[in-house]
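Input structure tokens:
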């Protein structure tokens, strides 16, 4: 289950989603903001997802750099890039 709060640069909440349960057996979840709501879509990433942000447990965000999965979805390999600046 996910609870998602999206806030702007002034910490004002602009979108919210609660009790977003898993819909499919997949290794990644895509979050979509529409209006003031957040929806969840469980996905198997494809080429169009390369370059998109990935949020890891704990909230750190990286960029998906590579993705591969077996045709039976029994295994997968991915690369995520992280960049930090103080």
């Amino acid at each position: 289950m996910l609870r998602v709060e999206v806030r702007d640069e002034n910490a004002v909440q602009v979108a919210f989603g609660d009790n977003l349960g898993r819909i499919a057996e997949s290794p990644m979840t895509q979050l979509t903001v529409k209006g003031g709501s957040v929806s969840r879509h469980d996905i198997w990433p494809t080429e169009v997802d390369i370059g998109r942000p990935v949020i890891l447990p704990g909230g750190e965000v990286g960029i998906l750099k590579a993705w591969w999965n077996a045709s039976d979805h029994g295994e997968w390999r991915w690369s995520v890039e992280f960049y930090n600046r103080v």
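The chain has no helices and seven strands. The first strand starts at residue 2 and ends at 7.
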